[in-house]
Amino acid sequence: MNNYGWGLPIRASSFAGQIDFGILLIHAAMALIFVLWGVFFAYLLVRYRRRAGTPAQREEHHASSQGGFWANNAGELKSLMPDVLVMLFEIALIVFYAFPVWRSIKMSPPDPKDADVVVEVTAEQFAWDVRYPGPDGKFGRAKPELVHFSNPLGLDRTDPAAADDIFVANELHLPVGKKTLIRLRSKDVVHDFFVPEFRLKQDAVPGLEIPMWVVPTRIGHYELACAQLCGFGHSLMRGDVYVESPEDFQKWLASRAALKPAPPSASNNSGGF
Amino acid sequence: MSQSHADSHGHGHAQSFLRRYVFSVDHKVIGLQYLFASMFFLLSGFALMMLMRWQLAFPGQAIPFFGRLFPADLAPNGVMSGEFYNALGAMHGTIMIFLGIVPMGVAAFGNYVLPLQIGAPDMAFPRLNMASFWLFLPGGALMLGSFFLPGGAAQSGWTSYPPLSVINPGQTVWLLAMVLLITSSLLGSINFLVTTANLRAPGMSLMRMPVFVWGEVVASVLLLLAFPPLEGAAILQLMDRVAHTSFYMPKDLVILGSHYAGSGGGQPLLWQHLFWFLAHPEVYVLVLPPMGIVAEIIANNTRKPLHGYTTMVLSMLSIGVMSLIVWAHHMFISGMSPALSNFFLVTTMIISVPSVALMTCLVFSLKGASIRYSVPMLFALGFIPLFAIGGLTGLPLGLTVTDIYLHDTYYVIGHFHFVVVTGSVIALFGGVYHWFPKWFGRKMNDTLGQIHFWGSVICMVGIFLPMLPMGLAGASRRLYDPTAQMHNLIVQPLNVVSTMFTYGLALFQIPFLWNFFHSIFRGEKTVENPWQATTLEWACPSPPPHGNFEKTPRVYRDPYEYSAPGRKTDYWPQNEPA
Fold first, then answer.
1. Domain range holding B300?
2. B18 lies in a domain?
3. What is the pLDDT of residues B377-397, one digit of tens each?
4. By three-state DSSP, how is residue B485 classified?
5. pLDDT value of residue A270
6. Neighbouring residues of B368: CB distance < 8 A, sequence distance ≥ 6
7. CB distance from B71 to chain A under 8 Å?
8. What three-state secondary structure class fits B44?
9. How far apart are CA B356 and CA B386, in angstroms?
10. Helix ranges, B365-374 (H)
11. Average pLDDT of B84-111?
């Protein structure tokens, strides 16, 4: 997996390029600002060091009644020009970049009907529970009291919609080029879904179901890492993302569907370990 | 010496040692109490980080020398455990912010210097002032002592996000200590505001106050307005832990396989809003008083008035107002409504304007100067470019889109340490060198000061600069073992670099500590106004006697009248008649 290096990781989602554009543009601007100010600053330090017989020169203040506010404070106002330039840059960045891109990435999750794939990702200490709705396209009922180490989501297999649900731990399979809707949940504490190659990061909050979307653009093997402190095992909380051709993805789904889930048993009610 | 002075002014009622130095109501003694306490806490917080840096650079290897000293449940065979790492992380942040930098910047310098700079005999409420310190110290002792209690110290981050903080050990003591610290801070901040409002010497109009006083005033307003919500929020979290209420706990949590017994119905995001409602203004509380210190030092060592005093004051005031409505830029990807993010993006952009104006004024103050490269001035000048890195790296984090990727990475850690360490801490060091003659009537050694400055600055940059490329490569913060996630592996050598510079930074604090404590007793004696400064704190003896000024000073002019035309000396104290 040669996805990572000393710079940004490879780009593997439709919006990764948009995010990288902003990161690179801002860093270019930052470098420019820092170098220009730095050169000026260094010049001032050398030019105005203390020398015998050269007293400090005070700035002229024309504190007279003539000229008005602007003329009297011309020197001070002129020095705020760099600030104005930075502000204009920021306004442009916000209006032409941040607003539209944020809207498309975070504010426009597709309707489940319009998504090619819908998958539910549930975070828990310290694992990712991934669920596909199965052939019927419906997520079945889950009950917290049914949670058991063999049934981490507490799926109620007596519900016909749940019977064909496909469950897999710490593995997320996605077809390349398809719009995937991910419903993000958490069972216990706040976690964070982070796939560096997708440039996608979202907190998983217990009690909320947060929709997010991604169109993977590159077949490959990526890392799903938890990016929000979630307890002593936080750094071990990782999973694998496999982006496959649509055919391979369908084959994988079929192979998982063939694995019959265990029939509901009485012991499922006990909960806990 | 101060004893004889005190006697000669009739203030010296025979006070016991306890009354004079322990339960003192004198703002100067309280200021020094805060100074020593916060220095101790800064060193403690730094020591915790030195342990963490070992684990980050060499995960899974036994800590040399000290590893065996820890009990086996914290560090089996000398190798740090995940719980211990998380406790160190949470306590490092908590101690540095709430027990180190804010008490030093606001309370130590504020208590000692603010009343002197406005020409007051003491703080408005001396007993409240004492109460503030004596709530702070037990709060700090409880916080630090929690390592030794059953369950250990809090391990849910200094941000203490529920539900994790509600179910993790150690948090109860953290919350109790926070309640003490917040109460202490409220008593202190109201005192600074009332003192500044009522005890200014005649002629000390608001726009003649030194910039440091303005920094203290704005910081105090923020503490007063933003801390009570966190105190309330902390008590709610305490209730969630001890009384099993569910203010922050949603329904149907399943924790490590068992159904959580609480009734549910709470909202984890509620805590995040209440927490950041304090914690973002807190950033400005961390920064504004140190920035005021930098302004004092720069005016004094450039030998000319500050460029744009009015701009600086107005910038500080507008930062104060705006900082109360930017908090949720910490929460762009928290699960709150993404539409709300746009509002906080815009307010964040707005607050950057006065921040840049402040920096601009500091740089332009050098134009036309006659720069005296004293040790305090080195620190003040070091502040400018390094704090600027902190400010600039805030740009991609404050922008919603780029924050999606950079949030919770090492980029964030690098960013705010450039702000708080190469910004605030550097400025506080400068303040120590600048006001040391005032406090003790002696000077610190210059050569040791220069060694301390260069060594510290180089090491600080060496620690925090590598964190920026690490963050860009995607390395997440708060990982006990960074090598457990594949995307961190390539940049792992940078962790080793950071760690080495951390130990270097520790070494370079030795000349400082020696210089500081040695100079208290053996330093070169100085005159009343060794820096030839203009502000009022230099118009009384060093150290000032009880009651400060022989007679209340009268203020005739602006705070930084250096190099005024037609005068023999290049400084014109505020209290000197024309």
1. 29-255+278-539
2. no
3. 999 999 999 999 999 999 999
4. coil
5. 39
6. A48, A56, A57, A58, A59, B304
7. no
8. helix
9. 14
10. none
11. 97
For the beta sheet containing A171-175, the strands, ordered from the edge strand earlier in sequence to the opposite edge, are: A171-175, A238-244, A220-226, A191-195, A200-204
> Contact at 8 Å (CB) between A26 and A93?
yes
Angle at which helices B426-440 and B375-398 cross, to 10°: 150
Percent of chain B with pLDDT over 90: 89
Question: In B254-331, which residue ranges form alpha helices assigned H by DSSP?
Answer: 268-302, 309-322
Please tell me the distance from the alpha carbon of residue A131 to that of residue A172, in angstroms, as a whole number.
Answer: 9
Q: Phi and psi of B330, rounded to 5°?
A: -85, -5
CATH of the domain at B98: 1.20.210.10
What's the CA gap between B177 and A146, in Å, rounded? 39
Q: What is the ipTM of this complex?
A: 0.92
Give yes or no for residue A66 having a pLDDT over 70: no
Contact A192 B303 (CB under 8 A): no
- What whole-number distance in Å separates Cα of residue B396 and Cα of residue A225? 22
Cβ–Cβ below 8 Å for A80 and B346:
no
DSSP-derived secondary structure for B549-567: SSS-----S-TT-BS-TT-
B562 domain residue, yes or no: no
CA of residue A126 relative to chain centroid, distance? 19
Of A233, A208, A124, A229, nearest in space to B268 by CA: A208
Nearest to B268 by CA among B226, B240, B308, B301: B240
Q: How far is A109 from chain B (nearest CA, A)?
A: 11
* Subunit contact B357:A80, Cβ cutoff 8 A: yes
Q: Looking at this protein, which amino acid is placed at residue A180?
A: T
Tally of domains within chain B: 1
CA distance A176 to A135: 20
Q: How confident is the model at residue B206 (pLDDT cuts 50, 70, 90)?
A: very high
β-pairing verdict for A220-226 and A210-214: unpaired
Closest CA to A218 of A192, A234, A195, A191: A195
Ordered by start, the domain boundaries in chain A are: 16-106, 117-268
Residues from chain B that touch A141, judged by Cβ atoms under 8 A, are none
Give how far A259 is from chain B: nearest CA, Å.
24
Strand (E) or helix (H) holding A134: none
Q: Nearest C-alpha of chain B: how many angstroms from A114?
A: 21
Closest residue, chain B, to A268 (C-alpha): B257
The 3-state DSSP composition of chain B as helix, strand, coil percent (nearest 5) reads 65, 0, 30
Enclosing H/E stretch for B12:
none
Is residue B182 within 8 Å of residue B231, measured between CB atoms?
A: yes
Among candidates B497, B472, B503, which has minimal Cα distance to B487?
B472
Instruction: Tell me the Ramachandran region of residue A248: left when phi exceeds 0, alpha when psi lies from -120 to 50, beta otherwise.
Output: alpha
Residue B483, min C-alpha distance to chain A (Å): 9
Nearest by CB to B250, from A23, A207, A273: name it. A207
Q: Report the alpha-carbon distance of residue B317 to residue B233 in Å, rounded.
A: 27
Chain B residue numbers with beta carbons less than 8 Å from the beta carbon of A45 are: 366, 371, 381
**pLDDT band at A175; cut points 50, 70, 90:** very high
Task: Give the sign of the dihedral formed by CA B190, CA B196, CA B197, CA B200.
Answer: positive
The structure tokens listed for B515 are 């210089």
At position B269, the amino acid (one-letter code) is L
Superfamily of domain A117-268: Cupredoxins -  blue copper proteins (2.60.40.420)
Tell me whether residue B564 is in a domain.
Answer: no
Neighbouring CB atoms inside 10 A of B84's CB total 25
Interface check B353 vs A, CB under 8 A? yes
Q: Do B565 and A58 lie within an 8 Å CB cutoff?
A: yes
SS3 B11: coil
Measured in whole angstroms, how far is the alpha carbon of residue B468 from the centre of its chain?
22
